[in-house]
């Protein structure tokens, strides 16, 4: 019987509750990628997602006596993952370096289509910040980040040196990171909303 069948998963859940390492391994293989990708989508930082992913399955093993095989194992797993992710965001608020990394990643991976489709409020925060840039710097940032133009192409279009374009991008990134950092609490709330949405998929 395949691992994915409900009857087999119930049997594996029962076995895991009794401490069966084989059952744990089979359930791990079924769900590890899904949990990892959901966490990575939420926190953006690969090393953090890996750390949280390991924490999830460690907690599954340590709390295996709480497994109720009358309910889907995935629900038990997702509840643990959500709680660990919530604890992570609580830690973010206490650790400035971690918050800075998340803010940096937010500006680096900014994709207006994705952000507005998946998290309109977050996209609006970033867009509002971009609109505060000086006109020429805003053009440079939009051409490179939004239209994926090269530094050389933008320099040629605007009749300036590549060095000037790099200077515009460095200053734009620094400004945006400073602006977005003002929204720490809003970003945390949006991340919680994303967390709930991601793990409901």
What report would you give on this structure?
The structure is a single chain. The protein has 201 residues and is mainly alpha-helical. It folds into 2 domains: 6-94, RNA polymerase sigma factor, region 2, helix turn helix motif (Rna Polymerase Sigma Factor, Chain: A, Orthogonal Bundle); 98-200, Winged helix-like DNA-binding domain superfamily/Winged helix DNA-binding domain (Arc Repressor Mutant, subunit A, Orthogonal Bundle), CATH 1.10.10. Helix content is 81%, strand content 0%. The longest helix is centred in the first third of the chain and has 23 residues, at 21-43.
Quick overview of this protein structure:
Helices cover 81% and strands 0% of the residues.
Largest sheet: none
| Low confidence ranges | 109-118, 195-201
CATH architecture of the largest domain: Orthogonal Bundle
What is the ordering of alpha helices and beta strands? Answer: HHHHHHHHHHH
CATH class of the largest domain: Mainly Alpha
Task: Look up the CATH topology of the largest domain.
Answer: Arc Repressor Mutant, subunit A
From the N-terminal CA to the C-terminal CA, the straight-line distance is 25 Å
What is the structural class?
mainly alpha
Taken as a percent bin, the fraction of beta residues is: under 5%
Integer tally of domains: 2
CATH superfamily of the largest domain: Winged helix-like DNA-binding domain superfamily/Winged helix DNA-binding domain
Q: Outline, from the CA principal axes? A: elongated
Key attributes of the depicted protein:
201 residues; mainly alpha; elongated; disordered C terminus; RNA_pol_sigma-70-like
